[in-house]
Amino acid sequence: MLHFSSLIHHSLRKTRVVSDDAGCVCGGSSLNRSSIDGGKQLHHHQHQSISSLSVAFPTEVALTNGTPMETLSPASASSLFNRLQLDDDLEADGRDLYASMETRDLFVTVDDPKKHVSTMETYITYRVSTKTSRIEFDLPEYCVRRRYQDFDWLRIKLEDSQPTHLIPPLPEKFVMKGVVDRFSEEFVETRMKALDKFLKRVADHPVLSFNPHLNAFLTAKDLNKRQGLALLTKVGESVKHVAGGYKLRARPAEFCAMGEYLDTFSLKLGTIDRIAQRIIKEQSEYLTELREYGTVYSSWAGSEQELRRPLEGVAACVTTCCGALEELSDNMSQDFLPVLREYVLYVESMKNVLRKRDQSQAEYEGRLEAAVLRKQEDRTPIPMEVEKCQDKMECFNADLKADWERWQSNKRQDFKQLLTGMADKNINYYEKCQAAWESLITLLQDRQTEDKTSETN
Amino acid sequence: RRLSAHICKELEQFVDFLDLRTNLLRKMEINVVEAEKRTGKNTVNMQETYTVYLIETRPAETVPEGGTPATPDTLWRRYSEFELLRTYLLVTYPYIVIPPLPEKRVSDAYLEGKVKNLYKFKFVWHKLSADNLDPDFVERRRGGLENFLLRVASHSVLSNDEIFFHFLTEGWRERVLETGFQDKADSRLKSLSAMFRVKNPDKRFTALKHYCDELNTVISQLLRVRARVADRLYGVYKVHGNYGRVFSEWSAIEKEMGDGLQSAGHHMDTYAASIDDILEEEEHYADQLKEYLFYTDAVRSVCRKHELIQYELEMAAQDLTHKKQQKEELATGTVRVFSLKGMTSKLFGQESQEQRESRLAALEQSIQEGEEAVKEKNTECQEFVRTAWEDIERFKEQKDKDLREALISYAIMQISMCKKGIQVWSNAKECFNKM
């Protein structure tokens, strides 16, 4: 069973047709439709099973290395799909994207920030390293330098070419010049981590990772951005305009639920953000007072004899605690908050995709209604356009559901990591403080026994 | 210090031996166990509410196996009576560093802090009742009063005082008033507030005074900053409670993550609530510091008393010198020092031989008295210095020991706080891991 699964996965990749327009991602030829409704069923199944296969693989699946299975025809593939579909015994863990690490064959990293100064401008570039065994890439390894603009370009291209998919967000583009130092170590570090996360999410996506723009981004010496950018944004916009003319009647319940979830979730994220900021503020005020507290012990030590060392010990202890606290607060600012904020952006992206899906459904329903009316009037058959719209909508729905599941899974992992990280940092902080106070007690008590023995002597 | 016979008899009930240098605590257990509100008419016939404290004493004998300890003797005393006792001790043993009493009333700073926090709507550590009947204040005072009694009872000199004994066991008012210490107290107050300059100050006492000034300043500062630190820490902990609420709300829309988030939220609530006990415990440390803050006043009081005696000695010596000079002038007829008598005799003629001789005799008498006075004052001064310095050395040792122990117990408190923090966050982490 497992063997077949991996073979199917591989063969799927071979038959996959990546298109640049807003069409379906699966190879059109594998569809077998007699009527709109019947085909819809099969199509759904196929899409669901494709998507769920890519996330449902247990970790034991080995990577098959390039054994072409052209003998496996689409028809028999679909029967296999159906058999697999019946297997409802999916472990919760099996749905974790990160669990299927061994099936990954594209690894990307963003690191090594460098400042570039020219007469016109100053900017930062990052090294983007790629390791891959995919045939879509000419070489197994690449190393290029990219700046934020390039990431932005990639994102726009992905959004326009894969409108039915959720594109991960980028960190904020604009920063207030007076308020934030764009070249400070902290800012660059935070941004770089976010860019790395963005690229990794794209590379892990079973559809987006095959996008030729990603390929270009990862491999090209110089990105030829200007031409493509202008053209595609115009096309993208026109597509949006057309779809925008239609009104949505009834959104399917599952998409309503998604929308509601996102609304509540973004509210909660906002609250958590505010709480974290408040904690940082309170900690900072506490730190100020604590520092002064330590200095008072130091100055007291100056007027004492027997108590001098103990008091200096206390002062040193307090200073250690201050250092530990500062570290904790910095970590919250630099690691916790940015990830939280990025998820807010992610939620916005997802909402956007939901809206586009709505538009796609609205367009289909609108056109269908018009066509049906005309058919009733003068027997004009339902045009192909309408069927295409239906396809588009169904593709969209399927892609969206798949992406939703992936997003939920990623979200769970990300927050698990984020929150356990926060707990870890707090534990670290207390451990450091405890160690400092414990060594102080040793110091204080040693003196005591010293004094006692000298007394008895 | 000799005790009267009937006091001895009473003591016999409690002691096996009559070593008068043994401190009282070895014979007697002393506790201030309770506080109660009373209302009554005060000296100007107005209704007032005040607090009384129950003092329990019992002989410190070992209780046999399965036996019950003897029922204690009890009596009620109010704060003003403690004050009276302390004043009596101050006057009677001016060379001893008398243990301080806890604060008389809620300090202005304490009140200010509460009011400010009310209006800031920030997290307030200080609870909100603001008078001497505030239960926390009363409780802390009870502890302070007990501490005062224990300090006196464990002092080798003070513990043998009969008035103190009566304070603990029966009607003492008449007795203490009998000692007539009130008059001494009044004159002491007057002299202490007077401005005078000592010509040859004792270097040791000067250094000690200086040290006390420094200690007083630094402990005041420490108490202030510590209170601010406590307020801030309170804020940090309480904000985490908000995590509890939001995690709970968030868990409602999640499927797999829900349980983990919900339980983690509970731990955040626990974390936020834990600060109350932590800070309550820390107040004990603040009380220990405060006692020594007040102790600096007691030490300065001894220094001032010494200064006064020194001054009186100098004055007496000066007076004697002056008189001797006068005698010399009278005897030799030379006028070196201006005197009215001298002037008038110049103006109105020389006095008779008789007059001169009677004046000389009077002066001789005066000089003799003066010499006695100087001798006495010198002895008094030396004795004072000796006994005072003995007690000061004792005090210094006590201070070093007590403060070191206070620092140790403070460190232990901090460690306990850290352990609690680690526990809570580890629990939360476990919950997050189950998400």
From TrEMBL, chain A:
Q: Name one GO biological process term.
A: endocytic recycling
* One Pfam family recorded for the sequence: PX
One term under GO cellular component: early endosome
Specify whether Repressor is a keyword of the entry: no
| Top-rank taxon, per record | Eukaryota
* Domain PX: start-end pairs: 104-225
InterPro entries recorded: AH/BAR_dom_sf, PX_dom, PX_dom_sf
In alphabetical order, the GO MF annotations are: phosphatidylinositol binding
Determine if Transport is one of this entry's keywords.
Answer: yes
Which keywords does this chain's UniProt record carry? Protein transport, Transport
Q: Which PANTHER family did the record assign? A: SORTING NEXIN-30, SORTING NEXIN-4
The entry assigns this protein to a family as follows: Belongs to the sorting nexin family.
Q: What is this protein called?
A: Sorting nexin-30
Q: Supply the source organism for this entry.
A: Echeneis naucrates
UniProtKB/TrEMBL annotation, chain B:
Signal sequence span is none
Top-rank taxon:
Eukaryota
Q: Which GO terms describe its molecular function?
A: phosphatidylinositol-3-phosphate binding
SMART domains, sorted: PX
What are the alphabetically sorted keywords of the record?
Coiled coil, Protein transport, Transport
Q: Which Pfam families match?
A: PX
Family matches, as InterPro entries: AH/BAR_dom_sf, PX_dom, PX_dom_sf, PX_SNX4, SNX4, SNX4_BAR
Q: Name one GO cellular component term.
A: plasma membrane
**Entries under Gene3D superfamilies matching the protein:** Arfaptin homology (AH) domain/BAR domain (1.20.1270.60), Phox-like domain (3.30.1520.10)
Extract the coiled-coil ranges from the record.
353-380
* Boundaries of every PX domain copy: 31-175
GO terms, biological process: positive regulation of autophagosome assembly; protein transport
The Swiss-Prot or TrEMBL record describes its family as follows: Belongs to the sorting nexin family.
Task: Output this protein's name.
Answer: Sorting nexin-4-like
